[in-house]
Structures are given as structure tokens and as C-alpha cells.
Design brief:
The protein is of the alpha/beta class. α1 crosses α6 and α4 packs across α5. It is elongated. The strands form eight sheets. Strands 7-4-6-5-9-8 form a six-stranded mixed β-sheet, with no helix packed on it. It contains seven helices and 28 strands. The chain has four domains: 166 residues, MoaB/Mog-like domain (Molybdenum Cofactor Biosythetic Enzyme, Chain A, 3-Layer(aba) Sandwich), CATH 3.40.980.10; 59 residues, Molybdopterin biosynthesis moea protein, domain 2 (Alpha-Beta Complex), CATH 3.90.105; 88 residues, Molybdopterin biosynthesis moea protein, domain 3 (Molybdopterin biosynthesis moeA protein, domain 3), CATH 2.170.190; 72 residues, MoeA, C-terminal, domain IV (Beta-clip). β24 and β25 form a beta hairpin. The structure holds adenosine monophosphate and magnesium ion. Magnesium ion binds next to loops.
């Protein structure tokens, strides 16, 4: 059986051969997508020198102290002005273009205004010295024409849309959404929540879980209907998934050692390359990873709900991040709140609660670690990673942890 670390290496190697195409995406649909190429700005931002304040624009040598200047006009945001300010001043609003011969803007609150007969400012009296280059946003001060604004691999959020919109960029090349099919196995499963359970039946919770967990990812996931419990039935669903164009298949159940654990056999029957089956982790030891004959990736996650969740977080997610050019979340460590004993020889991903006190992360491993127990997962906010070689861990020991919501993806 291989270690978790080794399994990650094997996934990484296999995913390196996986090719994802790119496609053009309009800015309004870009949120949540990944850029396939660097974006270079074709424009300056701001596009022109403009005022950062409501006030009066003037030359830097306009004077100091109680100087009175004539007001030559008024420029609002959106105006085009060819005003020459000369020895006077011009009233200017935030965002309005600063006249070519002005070198500074004095905020309205720093001058005294004398209104003319039309009620508009006719003269202003300065209250202090005029300092050059104040309150003017210079063209290109934020982004210069030719700057690379985003690198390939950038995951686009609302703030990126803000920049793209400000630059007037209409579309961008993004990585295509990989097609993922979700397959459930198990004769005991019932998909339809409105149907009453017959003796021995349970509800399918893994497929809705995986579909929901994938919702924030730039992927296209399909829940394949049905839940066969034999090799041929499973192969029929797999074929359906591949006919639909699936590039990744995630199945749950039927990878352990029981009579009905037919997934490894089924994969061998179609000539898939089983990269590993079983890993020294708990829960989820029987996890299987294979490359399908057409080059698609296959993850066989065990059926117990928490095993499926561990399989998704620790095997599927690293593969997806690599496919989508995303970095792994930063490594985080915390001190155990209490002693904990486990079996050596397995890395335990334990439902846990992380909290921070006095700048230190503290982690509490929860009760109810069995892989069928979903309720403790709801109290948890992270997985504690308790190392393979340790049987006894002491309060105060540093362990790695993985936040449930630890980054964009
Ligand atoms: P298996 O991995 O097929 O041996 O299943 C292990 C356990 O997980 C069994 O108790 C199954 O009933 C349960 N199980 C399998 N698939 C699902 C599923 N999709 N949703 C909820 N429980 C499941
Ligand atoms: Mg089963």
C-alpha cells in the first residue's frame, strides 16, 4: 500500500499528461473562470489626468496665503474642457479632466468662495500655500499601457472583473471547463428524496455532495443516473459518461474488498491503467485512481460519506487544482488541544475544529471520527492531518490541518 505523499506524486505525474483546451469567454461570464493567457493592458488607467477631489485646479505657482484668484469656469466629470486657467483657478469636480496648464487641485474645503451675481464661484481666497501635484490622479498611475495585468492561471473574482471592466476588456481566453461525471454504485441507494425507503435502503448522499462540492469550481459536472451494483451495470454507466465527453469520472462505492466491490475489475476489463488502489490513509483507504483508455482520469472513492469527502478533498482536489493551474493552499499548522491516539501506519484525516488564540492555531480533534458519521463533519471546520508514523500524539504537538474553506478553490 502506498503512502499519501506517494499517491499525490502519482496523481501529479498522471495529470501532467492531461490537456485542457482554452476558449473565449465574455467578461460578463468570466467570474469563477481561470485565465488561459496573460492579459496585457492596451490602455492607461486612469486614461487621463483627472481630479481626485471636488475643488479648484490651478498652477503650482498660484501663490500662497490669503491670495484671491478669479474662477475661470467649472469642469464636471464627463466634461471636455479646453479652458486655460492662466493666473486664475477653475472649479473642478472629482473625476473631471484637469486642464493642461493646471498642476494642482486645492480641495473645496481649503478655500473661501466669493460668489458672483449668478451664484457661481467668481473668486476664491486661498487659506494656505499652494503645493504642486496635489489631488491629481495621473494617467497610467494605476495601470500603464503595456502592463501585464493578470497572469495565465488567474482565478477570476469580482475584483478582477472590476479591473477588466475599467480597462474596457470585452473577453478573455480561459481554460475550458473540464467535464466531470459522477457515478454512484450500490443497490441500497435511493436517489429520489420523495420516495420512501424500503427495508435496507439508504439515500444517496454522496452524489449530491460531490455535485455541490464541485459547484464553485470552473468545471462542468453531470450526475449520471442509476447506481448499479455489478461490474457490467457499472461499465454501462461509465460508457455513458465517456460518451457524454467526460474527462474525469468520480465514482463512489465498490472499491473495497467485499463481493460487490467490482470497480477495480471493471476498470481492468476495459484496459484502464490503475495507478493506485488503496492508500495508507483513514478514512478512505480503498481509494482508487486510474487513467482510462481514452486518457480520462478516474477516481474511485469509497462509499462511506466521510471517506468520499476525504477522497474528494485529498485526491480529486489536488488533481483539479493542477488541471486548472491553481496553487495548493498554504501549508498550515496547529497545536493539538488534547492527546490523541490512533493506529500507526495510516495517515488520519480527522474531523476537527481550528481556532486561533494569542496568534497560535489550536486544533481540537472531534469525537465521532467513524466514516459513516456526517453530523460531526458539520461541527468541524477543518481536517487535522495526523501523520502515518505516529500512534500517540500529545497535547501541544504541532500537526498540519486543512481548512474546509481554505482558499478560492
Ligand atoms: P461501499 O464502499 O460500496 O462498500 O460502501 C460503503 C458504505 O457506504 C456502505 O454502508 C454503503 O451503503 C455506503 N454508501 C455507498 N454509496 C453511498 C452513497 N452514494 N451515499 C451514501 N452512502 C453510500
Ligand atoms: Mg457498495
Amino acid at each position: 500500500m502506498i503512502s499519501y505523499e506517494k499517491s499525490l506524486q502519482l496523481i501529479k505525474q498522471a495529470v501532467a499528461d492531461f490537456q485542457l483546451s482554452s476558449e473565449v469567454c465574455a467578461v460578463e461570464d468570466l467570474s469563477g473562470r481561470v485565465l488561459a493567457r496573460t492579459i496585457v493592458s492596451a490602455a492607461n488607467l486612469p486614461g487621463f489626468d483627472n481630479s481626485a477631489m471636488d475643488g479648484f485646479a490651478m498652477k503650482a505657482n498660484a501663490g500662497s496665503g490669503q491670495i484671491c484668484l478669479p474662477v475661470m469656469g467649472n469642469i464636471g466629470a464627463g466634461d471636455v474642457s479646453h479652458l486655460k486657467v492662466g493666473e486664475g483657478a477653475v472649479q473642478i469636480m472629482t473625476g473631471a479632466p484637469v486642464p493642461a496648464d493646471c498642476e494642482t487641485v486645492i480641495p473645496v474645503e481649503n478655500v473661501q468662495i466669493q460668489a458672483g451675481s449668478d451664484g457661481l464661484p467668481a473668486h476664491i481666497t486661498l487659506q494656505g500655500p499652494v503645493v504642486a501635484d496635489q489631488n491629481i490622479r495621473r494617467a497610467g498611475q494605476d495601470v500603464c499601457k503595456g502592463d501585464a495585468v493578470f497572469a495565465a492561471g488567474q482565478f477570476i473574482g469580482a475584483e478582477h472583473i472590476m479591473m477588466l471592466a475599467a480597462l474596457g476588456i470585452l473577453q478573455a481566453d480561459v481554460l475550458a471547463k473540464p467535464k466531470i461525471s459522477l457515478i454512484s454504485t450500490g443497490a441500497e441507494l435511493v436517489d429520489d428524496a420523495s420516495v420512501s425507503l424500503q427495508p435496507g435502503q439508504i439515500r444517496n448522499s454522496n452524489q449530491p455532495y460531490l455535485a455541490a462540492a464541485l459547484q464553485n469550481w470552473p468545471v462542468q459536472s453531470t450526475q449520471i443516473k442509476g447506481h448499479p451494483d455489478d461490474r457490467d451495470g457499472f461499465l454501462r454507466l461509465l460508457e455513458r459518461a465517456l460518451d457524454d465527453g467526460a474527462q474525469l469520472v468520480i465514482s463512489t462505492g465498490a472499491v473495497s474488498m467485499g463481493d460487490r466491490d467490482f470497480v477495480p475489475d471493471a476498470l481492468r476489463a476495459i484496459g484502464a491503467d490503475i495507478i493506485f488502489h488503496k492508500c495508507k490513509i483513514r478514512p478512505g483507504k480503498p481509494v482508487l485512481f486510474a487513467v482510462l483508455p481514452g486518457g480520462g482520469l478516474f477516481f474511485g472513492l469509497p462509499g462511506n460519506p466521510v471517506s468520499a469527502a476525504v477522497g474528494f478533498d485529498f485526491f480529486v482536489k489536488p488533481a483539479l487544482r493542477q488541471i486548472l493551474a491553481q496553487a495548493e493552499p498554504a501549508r498550515e499548522m496547529a497545536r493539538l488541544v488534547s492527546d490523541f491516539t490512533k493506529r500507526a501506519g495510516f495517515c488520519l484525516f480527522a474531523k476537527a475544529v481550528i481556532s486561533t488564540k494569542d496568534n497560535q492555531n489550536h486544533i481540537e480533534v472531534l469525537k465521532g471520527q467513524q466514516s459513516f458519521r456526517i453530523a460531526p463533519l458539520l461541527q468541524a471546520n477543518c481536517w487535522a492531518e495526523l501523520p502515518e508514523d505516529k500512534a500517540v500524539l500529545r497535547a501541544g504537538d504541532l500537526v498540519r490541518f486543512h481548512r474546509f474553506y481554505g482558499g478560492v478553490l
